[in-house]
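Subject: sequence -> structure tokens, single chain

Hey, anyone have a minute? Need the predicted structure for the following. Not urgent.
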Amino acid sequence: MIGAKRAPGVAWVRAFAALSLLVVSCHRPSAAAPRDRPLIDLMGKREVDGFGETRRISFGEGDRSHLLDGWSGDEHDHTFDLAFVWATALEASVSFQVLQVEELQFLVKLRSFPSETPQVITVLVNGREVSRFTATAVFLEYRFVVPADGLRRGENRLTFRHSILNRHAEGVEPRLFAAAYHSILIGPQCLPLRGWGTALEPRVHHRNANRSQPAMIVVTGPALVHRRLLVPNESILRYRLSLASGETEVAVSTLRIRDGESTREVAETRLSRSAFGSRSLDVEVDLRPWGGRTVDLELEVYPLPCRSSVATVVVERAGVYGAARTPVSAGASRDILLPSSRRARRVAATSRGARAAVCPRRHAETITGRALPPLPESDGGAAPGFCAGGALTPHGPGGRSRDRAAGTPAHFPA
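Reply:
Had a minute. Here:
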């Protein structure tokens, strides 16, 4: 009788043990996590550098990295509790960074030095006049728009040309004064320049690993992550992308490889959140065409135009690994058109996420050498969503580039 009473207890113990084994098996490392050690780990704080588009320039608060010439020291107006810097030359200039070349609006807050003669300020961007206004002796905001053809990718120069310089009536100091500048806001013309709450500014931020999470590079775009490296022979680049927690907007990332004067866009990834949440995408790029060469890797993150001013993406597990790979199943392919690139990609879905390639050549071959079904033929050019009579090929040095060089295509994750 005693043994009969203990039988249910033994059954519960066995059931609990079986459940524990099931839970452990479900938490085995994902195939997406590289088990081999990287040849080059790109997740260290000293391994990457980056910058974001300039969206705000603040005067008088200690950061003078944007100020070029024509400026005095940092000062503070205690009456209105405003920091500012005097422009003390007829021309005073600042620099700002642009990654997505599009029409931008500017909102500058300033006041002129008190004078009987009006202070007329002419605004120039990269030497081209874009606006002119008359400033008053109280802090006000002045808005102007710069067309896309007046901007360039990278550093730009914004110059304020003043009509007059003034001295203090009492002659207490030798400086000449034009206007006091407090701030400059910059943003896409198609979006409100100011929103509710604290506005996120583009930047690149590194988070160290801890017990609960791996090392991360958090990129609030438009922003660029940069790394120069000597590419090992027979190697591939791997990294994982996901939307930041709480991010609701679509984000796009583009990976470029600069080899001297040549620039290749080798991977483009679109991240969005669905009703089921956000998923991570693992990207692999074949680096063998650049083996033994020193190149610049650039990962750019940006929001969809006119949808949001910023978008935040998390980069994890970035590194350069040996080229050995797990075969891709040809039966797990599907067609996807990435709207942001205007090119069709055939996507091969694997246990590590989704991968894709463009396909101008006719050899049905993926980066792993496994054949994929050919895409439908089109009559005279590629139809939307397909390649013209082509099939997949591995990435090579002649992939999609700015100079549209012919050759094998790039590798595009979904």
